[in-house]
């Protein structure tokens, strides 16, 4: 019996109303994501990548349907943990309490919740900042807290919208490594939106390239790299650079189309 896809996107289209003209963001997107697969979506700015993620998250209605474990979604759910581009922290809660927030109604004891929070505070490098409030943190720190809060709830599916875009280069690499470690250990199903081709190749085992708006998937790349070797060795390998160049050329092609359409409009 064939395995049921963890996430199945079937004929999803989305049009936003406009003052003068409606804008079609997505056009009949089809994508099947297997359990434990890490899929990244890349493409030119404005192609509808984030819109697609929000539809899968249950935050936006759209034509077509999204299935999780074979069942149509009816809105947001605890099975899908989302990390947005914006920090989306509760300003009245400390770092620790922001991380603990999603655990409060779960089955863990107070002591177990505290251990989860302590571990994640260490992972994101914010020991000593546990009692600070979001207004006292830099943008990068806020996003690290948002990532930790999502991971704390241990969702089966991670939906990541440019999760490391606000981080400095060194912290971004640390968080990429941590996300890769978590995925290799847990094999969560991951759908990530990113503009960074290197990031997509490093983390994913499949990359989908979206067209210029209205967005649809026009090309896919299977990524089969040895992720047990150090980052430096992987990034300088011929295998990494070959697929990185292929993906970059595909994205570049779509970006040029988007630019031509923009000028024509």
What's a quick, concise take on this entry?
The chain is 38% helix and 22% strand. The chain contains eight helices and ten strands. The longest helix is centred in the C-terminal third of the chain and has 27 residues, at 238-264.
Protein architecture, described:
There is one protein chain. This protein folds into 2 domains: 33-79 and 156-265, 3-Layer(aba) Sandwich (Rossmann fold), CATH 3.40.50.300; 87-154, no CATH class. Helices cover 38% and strands 22% of the residues. It is built from 8 helices and 10 strands. The strands form 2 sheets. The chain has a 6-stranded mixed beta sheet with strand order 6-7-8-3-9-10, with helices on both faces. Strands 2-1-4-5 form a 4-stranded antiparallel beta sheet, with helices on one face. A hairpin with a 6-residue loop joins strand 9 (206-210) and strand 10. It is globular and about 55 Å long. The relative contact order is 0.17.
How many domains? The number is 2
Envelope shape: globular
- Low-confidence parts lasting 5 or more residues at pLDDT below 50? none
H and E order: EEEHEEEHHHEHEHEEHH
Main pleated sheet: 6 strands, mixed
Percentage of β-strand residues: 15-25%
CATH class assignment of the largest domain: Alpha Beta
CATH topology of the largest domain: Rossmann fold
User: What's the end-to-end separation, in Å?
Assistant: 49 Å
Fraction of residues in helices?
25-40%
Return Rg in Å. 19 Å
Specify the number of helices.
Answer: 8
CATH-scheme architecture of the largest domain: 3-Layer(aba) Sandwich
Could you tell me the mean pLDDT? 90
Structural class: alpha/beta
- The total beta strand count reads 10
CATH superfamily of the largest domain: P-loop containing nucleotide triphosphate hydrolases
Lateral strand order in the biggest sheet: 6-7-8-3-9-10
